[in-house]
Amino acid sequence: MQGLFISFEGIDGAGKSTHIDALSRAFEAQGRHVTLTREPGGTPLAEQLREMVLQAPMDAMTEALLVFAARRDHVQQVIRPALMRGDVVLCDRFSDASFAYQGAGRGFDWHMLETLEAWVQGGDAAGAAAQTLLQPDVTIWFDLPPAVAASRLAGARVPDKFESQPEAFFAQVAGGYAKRQQSAPERFARINANQTPDAVRHEVMQALRDRGWLTP
Ligand code: TMP
After folding, report:
1. Protein residue with its CA nearest to atom 18 in ligand 1
2. Is the CB of 165 under 6 A from ligand 1?
3. Which CATH architecture fits 4-210?
4. Which one of 98, 148, 176, 198 has the minimum C-beta count within 10 Å?
5. Residues 92-110: pLDDT tens digits?
């Protein structure tokens, strides 16, 4: 069976997690083996890098280099092997988050991010840019107005470095996701996350049925 790579994106507070779990169960019910993972993270090394990125103050370039370093390890150790086995890989965030957060949110150079993406998601280091880029088969984008996300996040738990950013930061991040969607519209499934959890789940499942990846 062919591997399937699905990423989940959205600003903090968009409510991805419960839907990722539901989707995992739906694929397993169809007899698929699921690899459930996240970014930054997914390997011991990448989880250590995650702690640094989410907690330590640093400039935007350092942040970008660390999230892509974590991604490199994750792609090599977990994602590519799982896809080779024919798994469904459900990844809570992938490189669109770097464009949205480090690019649009923190103002790091977009083209530099594209270069890092080509290196990290290409093949081996030599001539990586010439190889096919590993990208999700579909990216489920939970789109939510930043004001709604802010009210959902308020008081939920101790915020990390990104969660404690002002609403204006998330407006920029949301703009970054929109820009990524415009550059690859066929890859993105935009979900209106400003609905009840049931309605959101229905849209997520429908997006996968429409692509023939989940049976009705
Ligand atoms: P999470 O809270 O959804 O697990 O995401 C972790 C945080 O890391 C979230 O605020 C977004 C941020 N992030 C980046 O800034 N760049 C990245 O490349 C990734 C994957 C996440």
Report:
1. 98
2. no
3. 3-Layer(aba) Sandwich (3.40)
4. 198
5. 999 999 999 999 999 999 9
